[in-house]
Specification:
alpha/beta; Rossmann fold; eight-stranded mixed β-sheet; binds zinc ion
Length: 252
């Protein structure tokens, strides 16, 4: 835990330190924070980019995939010469260039119950950048178990969804409370359904901003709302959902 800022920190973060809601104390909080990002794709790239630029002290990134040509139109930490390389290796390399003060821990694996149970203990804030409900529900389960903050994102076509959960608050609903039945991964399948690049950037950027708000304890999260964005109509709306009486989350 570091409690001061050096000259280089002060200049690097000057545009956010000047914000009343941040200041030197807020910047120190950001520098001491530990954030786990699961998925280094369309959402994970902008999340890792903004959080490292903001000065997050430790970023964990989990992904087992390699960069392929069809990723580049939206996954904005990769370029054409990264094709065939492991995503987490490239993220680590790029973030070191963006901000040498950010420590990166890479997990070249598919997240499951067993490995997340060990990994999650090292982080305070969890961000979902995955493209499937199985992973989202595992993150939901262990974030509840260890009372973490979890920011979930989902994108398809021109549409995006965001959920914010703070599981220290016992009244908060969970991701399972929203999805009463098991949703099909087909709706998140970028290969068959298609996806526009900018929706990944917009949703990932909102997720990064929600994490920074949580670190600083400023503003409001979505809590019992889901944020729904439609870039075709430019409709941004929130829909309320409730904690489900018999939700599986009560057993975690
Ligand atoms: Zn629930």
């Amino acid at each position: 835990m570091k409690n001061n800022l050096n000259k280089s920190h002060i200049e690097r973060y000057s545009r956010q330190i000047v914000l009343k809601n941040v200041g030197a104390i807020g910047q120190i909080k950001i520098n001491n924070s530990k954030v786990l990002i699961v998925g280094a794709g369309g959402l994970g790239c902008p999340i890792a980019d903004y959080l490292s630029r903001a000065g997050v002290g430790t970023i964990g990134i989990a992904d087992f995939d390699k960069v392929n040509l069809s990723n580049i139109h939206r996954q904005n930490l990769y370029d054409s010469k990264d094709i065939g390389k492991y995503k987490v290796d490239i993220v680590k390399k790029k973030i070191k260039l963006i901000n040498p003060f950010t420590k990166i821990k890479t997990y070249k694996k598919k997240i499951n119950n067993k490995n997340l149970n060990n990994i999650i203990k090292n982080f305070d804030f969890i961000v979902d950048g995955s493209d499937n409900f199985k992973t989202k529900f595992i993150l939901n389960k262990y974030s509840i178990k260890y009372k973490k903050n979890l920011i979930v994102g989902a994108i398809s076509k021109f549409d995006g969804h965001v959920f914010t959960f703070d599981f220290k608050d016992k009244k908060t609903p969970c991701l399972r409370c929203f999805y009463q039945t098991e949703p099909s991964d087909e709706i998140l399948n970028c290969e068959t359904e298609g996806v526009m690049g900018p929706i990944a950037g917009i949703i990932g950027s909102i997720q990064a901003n929600e994490i920074i708000k949580k670190i600083l304890k400023i503003g409001k999260g979505l809590r019992k709302n889901i944020l729904i964005i439609d870039l075709l109509t430019l409709n941004f709306r929130k829909a309320t959902f409730k904690k489900k009486k018999n939700c599986i989350c009560k057993k975690y």
